[in-house]
Specification:
This protein is mostly helical and 496 residues long. It is built from 23 helices and no strands. It starts with 6 loop residues before the first helix and ends in an 8-residue tail after the last helix.
Length: 496
């Protein structure tokens, strides 16, 4: 009996694969030894996220609104509440932390659990990665090997050992991509709504995800021959000639009003929003026209959904008293204000790509095998591989505007997904190729991982005590507690 036809066997293999991934992750990352380190070892973002989670649990407005890490902060605050429920964490909200005299000890415990939360989040992220890759390969073992390559990528390794906002943003971004793909494959409108919700979640967690929208649009519509559109016959108002003009008017009024009411305005932000609306409509117009579907009523429905889902999404989150309006302004309105962190003069795309041996090897391997086996995998899969590679290069190029290894998690998946087309080869060929890939990538990554493990344990007490970071990003914490901590380590903070 084929695996695909035996649901119980398939579920069992899924479960076994996830356990294998989890155990290998524990071994490769040496998780338990890496989590228990001083709170200053990687204080940016870990300290700020933990601090804002304490604010959440005390019903205070969160202060970290630049990117804004909303769901990372929210879920960590829930995790802290659960730990408190089981008597594992006593200092779980800011009001308690404020009264405590154990400044150093409290932060060590809070960040230890924050790292456990990060490791668990990576496990969930890898599970989703495995499921999506298997959706394209239809081969559990081949998907497992490709997922293990994702696990060995440095973009994943970093986020398994420190808590940052990028991991959860990528998790939501993948869910948005997958639901858009399901929308075109299965013609169920609720998948489109889920795509919008998860995309909004991703952007709210990390603003730069908005720049990646073209990737999931182009990958989502690829091979959309089965797409039949949405039956709008029961929604006659969609065909009214003035509805589309009302939508355009609402969009422009909203963008203009938000722009005018925003502090530190950037004219590129409304231009960027309008550009993305236009891109979305052009792509969907092309698909609807190509498949001879009702263009106007479908486009009206999709655009109404974009607006209504956003309004519902935003109002729902404001049920929580800690939700800060500035987070929405910085992520959905004044988006381009974050370009202040970009230094274009230092950008060298080719040099950056050549610097990362892991990515260069996978890129050349994917291109060469796709071309060599083009007849075996078929034209459709060949094109899919090329689009995945272009998606990787596009995201990688954007991330190199502000070079940092932490952003590799956004691009690695799409490079590895380009190898999914090799699942069309015979079992011997595809498993041989996959195992060679896994061994070579692990060989490349192993010395980098060992070096990272040796440096991550080093505390940075001197560094944080001689900077203004603590005062700038943790404004409600009593300054005297931090100054006292620095003095206890024979350091006089000059920024107090």
């Amino acid at each position: 009996m084929k695996i695909e036809n035996n649901i119980y066997l398939k579920l069992f293999l899924y479960f076994v694969s996830i356990i294998i991934i989890f155990l290998l992750g524990l071994y490769m990352f040496d998780i338990l030894n890496l989590l228990d380190r001083h709170w200053t070892s990687i204080y940016d973002h870990e300290l700020t996220i933990a601090y804002n989670s304490l604010l959440f649990n005390s019903g205070l407005k969160h202060e970290y609104v630049d990117h804004s890490g909303y769901f990372t902060i929210l879920f960590l605050s829930i995790f802290y509440n659960l730990l408190n429920l089981f008597d594992l964490l006593s200092v779980y909200k800011f009001s308690i932390f404020e009264q405590s005299e154990n400044f150093n000890e409290d932060l060590n415990v809070l960040l230890f659990y924050a790292r456990i939360f990060a490791a668990l989040s990576v496990f969930i992220f890898i599970t989703l990665t495995f499921y999506i890759i298997n959706y394209f390969t239809k081969s559990i073992l081949f998907s497992l090997i490709l997922t293990l390559i994702v696990l060995t990528s440095f973009g994943t390794i970093i986020h398994a050992t420190q808590l940052r906002t990028e991991l959860l943003a990528m998790f939501f971004f993948l869910l948005a991509f997958f639901n858009l793909r399901l929308f075109f494959d299965r013609n169920k409108f609720f998948y489109f709504l889920f795509f919008l919700v998860f995309f909004y979640c991703a952007v709210l967690n990390k603003t730069q995800v908005f720049l990646y929208l073209p990737v999931i649009l182009f990958l989502g519509i690829f091979d959309s021959k089965k797409f039949t559109g949405i039956n709008t016959s029961n929604f006659k108002f969609l065909e009214h000639k003035n509805v589309k003009y009302i939508i355009i008017l609402i969009l422009f009024i909203y963008v203009i009003l938000k722009y005018l009411s925003t502090y530190n305005k950037d004219i590129l932000s409304p231009v960027f929003i309008i550009y993305n609306f236009c891109l979305f409509n052009l792509i969907f117009f092309y698909i609807l026209k190509k498949n001879n579907l009702r263009i106007e009523s479908n486009l009206v429905l999709y655009n109404i959904s974009i607006i209504l889902v956003f309004l519902l999404f935003k109002n729902f989150l404001f049920i929580h008293p800690s939700t800060n309006e500035e987070a929405f302004i910085n992520t959905f309105t004044n988006i381009m204000s974050n370009t202040k962190y970009i230094n274009i003069s230092n950008v060298s795309f080719l040099e950056d790509l050549l610097r990362y041996k892991f990515h260069l090897f996978l890129l050349l391997f994917s291109l060469s095998t796709s071309i060599i086996f083009r007849k075996k995998i078929g034209k459709k899969n060949l094109y899919f591989s090329f689009i995945c590679i272009l998606s990787f290069l596009y995201i990688f190029g954007i991330n190199m505007l502000r070079p940092n290894l932490i952003y590799l998690i956004f691009s690695d998946f799409f490079l590895i997904l380009s190898l999914s087309s090799l699942a069309k080869l015979t079992n011997f060929k595809k498993y041989s190729i996959a195992l060679i890939l896994l061994l070579v990538t692990f060989y490349i990554q192993h010395p980098i991982l060992e070096n990272y493990k040796s440096t991550i344990r080093i505390d940075k007490i001197v560094e944080i005590c001689n900077s203004n970071y603590f005062f700038d990003w943790q404004k409600k914490i009593d300054k005297e507690k931090f100054i006292k901590f620095c003095k206890s380590n024979n350091i006089n903070n000059s920024y107090n």
